[in-house]
Amino acid sequence: MTATPLWTATEAATATGGKATADWQASGVSIDTRTIRPGNLFVALKAARDGHDFVAQALEKGAAAALVSRVPEGVAADAPLLIVPDVLAALEDLGRAARARSDARVIGITGSVGKTSTKEMLRTVLSGQGRTHAAEASYNNHWGVPLTLARMPADTEFAVIEIGMNHPGEIAPLSKLARPHVVMITTVAAAHLEAFESLDGIAHEKASIADGLEPGGVAVLNGDIETSHILQDRARAHGARVSLFGEGPQNDHRAEKITLVDTTTVVQGQAGDMPVLFKVMAAGRHFAVNGMGVIAVVDALGLDAGLAATDIGHWAPPAGRGARERISLDPVEDDQTFELIDDAFNANPTSIAAALEVLAAARTDDGKGRVARGRRIAILGDMLELGPDEIAMHAELAALPWMAQLDRVHCVGPRMHHLHAALPERLRGEWVDDAEKMVTRAPHLIDAGDVVLVKGSKGSRVSLVVDALRKLGQSPRSSE
């Protein structure tokens, strides 16, 4: 049986108002020739490079057609193209049409911390209860949201759309494009403060995800944070039913007991009137709280919350977002290993506090390396886009309670120099001004039996340190 195409030339032309130069059928949508698959519609977006420069390559790799604003140089006039006035606007039109033709229940998710990992948790849980579509990676911006929608098969039952922002006014238009039935806000924290005057400003922007809610929609909101009232007021102003999640007694879905046990988290709580117990296969209080939010979303959709609680245990964090792996330092002696926690994708005070709590609960191995005692080691890169108080925010990390359980903190970047200076002598490791220098130092700072956390904003480039530590390994193995 022939699979139903995602888009035909006629459908795409109708959706965008464009002109198709040939009759074609596309099985997917791609914006990158490095990952394009035969049968995809290639979208020639203008970003760092003009996508029109890659149309010929996309067609050579088997693209069904290309979405363009002109016939690119070196491409035949009769090549399979969809010609439109503006490629990004046409991608939005495709996303809008895909949303309109689908009966899927749509969930929009945003938050300063945890939106991508929670989106993946929702993907895992909802996949157990119906055909589920969700964004790749963290495709959550002005092109990522329409691309995710344009890729949505017509028979999708649940769609999870991640929506992010860097500046005011970005979230509401994307939410109106996605038209969610349920929205979820994981938390509001000090991130992108350079573009906002205060935490309240960030909360108002996050709260605007409710602007796109379908009539009768539900807003699943973090009830523990100080700006929760801003989120609730905006949601209710749009006629939404509000469902709160968190740890406090005011929440409809609450985690009453959270136990971090090395690489897992056990959660006991209440989902409305129903007692709930579930395990997350990753250590982290934030994973536990967001897991309760996931159950609240499932409840809002009228699905099986008990099955969702079971299925949360099938989720594990992706690389760069708290994924854990064991690195072998010796090809002969199997016990000469250390554990790496890769959390190098983003950082703000809230997410670093959560990551350090995970590190503090990690189980080390004694009697293996030259130090003879396993240590908990943090390698922390700069937190970026924090605004005028960034120096104080870095220095204040030294007062986090989880620091007492750590053995050494190494710092990367000019902002992290202020944390380095504030650390007690017992904890103060090395400081370097850029990640490349830590790449050369890191192999000398760890030993068998250690647990090593690497965390920083993406722009701090501490992912290079993660790569250097991985290269020490003979055969990396999952510790989960």
Automatic annotation (TrEMBL):
One of its GO terms (cellular component) is cytoplasm. Its main location: cytoplasm. Transmembrane segments: none annotated. The lineage of its organism: Bacteria, Pseudomonadati, Pseudomonadota, Alphaproteobacteria, Rhodobacterales. Belongs to the MurCDEF family. MurF subfamily. Its EC number is 6.3.2.10. Keywords: ATP-binding, Cell cycle, Cell division, Cell shape, Cell wall biogenesis/degradation, Cytoplasm, Ligase, Nucleotide-binding, Peptidoglycan synthesis. Residues 27-97 form the Mur ligase N-terminal catalytic domain. It is found in: Cytoplasm. This is UDP-N-acetylmuramoyl-tripeptide--D-alanyl-D-alanine ligase. One of its GO terms (biological process) is peptidoglycan biosynthetic process. It holds the Pfam family Mur_ligase_C. The gene is murF. Residues 109-298 form the Mur ligase central domain. It catalyses: D-alanyl-D-alanine + UDP-N-acetyl-alpha-D-muramoyl-L-alanyl-gamma-D-glutamyl-meso-2,6-diaminopimelate + ATP = UDP-N-acetyl-alpha-D-muramoyl-L-alanyl-gamma-D-glutamyl-meso-2,6-diaminopimeloyl-D-alanyl-D-alanine + ADP + phosphate + H(+). It comes from Lutimaribacter saemankumensis.
